[in-house]
Amino acid sequence: MVKIELFEVDHWILSRSSTTVKHNLAHSYCLPRSIRDLQQLAGDSDAATEAFSQVLSKALDYGPMKGSERLRSKISKGYLTGSSSDLSIENIITTPGASLANFLVIFALLGPGDHVIVQYPTYQQLYSLPKSLGIDVSLWETKKDEGWKLDLEQLKGLIRPNTKMIIINNPQNPTGAIITKSTLEAIVDVARDHSITIFSDEVYRPLFHSISPTDPEYPPSILSMGYENTIATSSLSKAYSLAGLRVGWIASHSSKVIDLCVNARSYALITVSQIDEYLASFTLSPSVGQGLIERNDTLAKRNLYLVQSFIDKNSSACEWVRPVGGPIGFIRFTRSGKPVDDLELCTALLQKRGVLLVPGRKCFGDGVNFSGYVRLGFGGDTGELEVALDALQLFLQEDYSDVPLSTGP
Ligand SMILES: Cc1ncc(COP(=O)(O)O)c(C=O)c1O
């Protein structure tokens, strides 16, 4: 039996009683939308209704083995660079969400005896899954005091003769930090020198609320960096606010990578629900997709301002590196300069004020860096966020002094 570690974030959220949770700031996606919202974004309601009626008469066979061609064609447009190396739809396969996309990439391409380097902190799946499959994992650590920036010299020092993959997450969960264009270029140079594949989980793309596309450091997808040994995964869950649709994808310029993932996909699911793919394809039509991203960008900016104001007001108790992408941030809580116990903080906050946050040390590893850290999701409704921040403020005023300091490393 494969020994698999507890998936801490999901376990933490699932095991909190829904009756205690009044203000959920533990989520990492933007305000979920309905099919009706999508119809409205399409503008022309007759055309939208006509488009939806097509799904009623669709014969529900398995569908194409790599996923709906219409959907893959729309996904490919998200990687357009205007160069000859644009992505063909043959180099994209659909999956139910980015979770399964990540699973298939790791499962299909790696095995015992391989070594991978994983940006850290990050989504637990990206380092725990390879570990459970007997793959050697080195964590490429980043620190708050260095703005969560990746250190290229550290990367070079981690490379071994059997290093097969560098795994990055851009924008990054839980910090909302991004890997800038120049850092991506430097990672590609190192990977190319050693023929290492770069796998980038880009599930929060293209929600870059705090960097303009005209900024020279605006991060392109890893697939646009002119290196064939690259893989990107993504989905409609976060930036497109449709986690319930369960549609994601794997994209790579390497046909060999895609073939291996298609084969692994056959063992796990055969194909994705055609109805989900149909809705996903509708979502990625220009007016709907663009409309969703614009709405969520505006929402993230507005909500980020509220969280930043809260942090500024309480600067003796909390601090963060202001996130640049994705609707999440990693806040460090201290008292008299020492980190509080984040698990105790989250537990007491939930019990007393009904606010659900994610404890950093528990859910993002036992690393020395994460005592006192919590992940806060700010992609939800603005009014609800305001109420949640008021509840958090009351907690700081009335209950915070009872939270024990961290005894961790
Ligand atoms: C970095 C990262 N990758 C993948 C996923 C899974 O997303 P999906 O809902 O598309 O399966 C998450 C979900 O939180 C995530 O944070």
UniProtKB/TrEMBL annotation:
Family classification = Belongs to the class-I pyridoxal-phosphate-dependent aminotransferase family.
Task: Enumerate the GO terms in the molecular function aspect.
Answer: pyridoxal phosphate binding; transaminase activity
Q: Which organism is it from?
A: Penicillium daleae
Q: Name one Pfam family in it.
A: Aminotran_1_2
Q: Which PANTHER family match?
A: AMINOTRANSFERASE FUNCTION, HYPOTHETICAL (EUROFUNG)
Q: Which InterPro entries match?
A: Aminotransferase_I/II_large, NHTrfase_class1_PyrdxlP-BS, PyrdxlP-dep_Trfase, PyrdxlP-dep_Trfase_major, PyrdxlP-dep_Trfase_small
* Lineage, highest ranks first: Eukaryota, Fungi, Dikarya, Ascomycota, Pezizomycotina
Q: Which residues form the Aminotransferase class I/classII large domain?
A: 46-392
Keywords on record: Aminotransferase, Pyridoxal phosphate, Transferase
Q: Transferase as a keyword?
A: yes
Q: Which SUPFAM superfamilies match?
A: PLP-dependent transferases
List the protein's name.
Aspartate/tyrosine/aromatic aminotransferase
Q: Which CDD domains match?
A: AAT_like (cd00609)
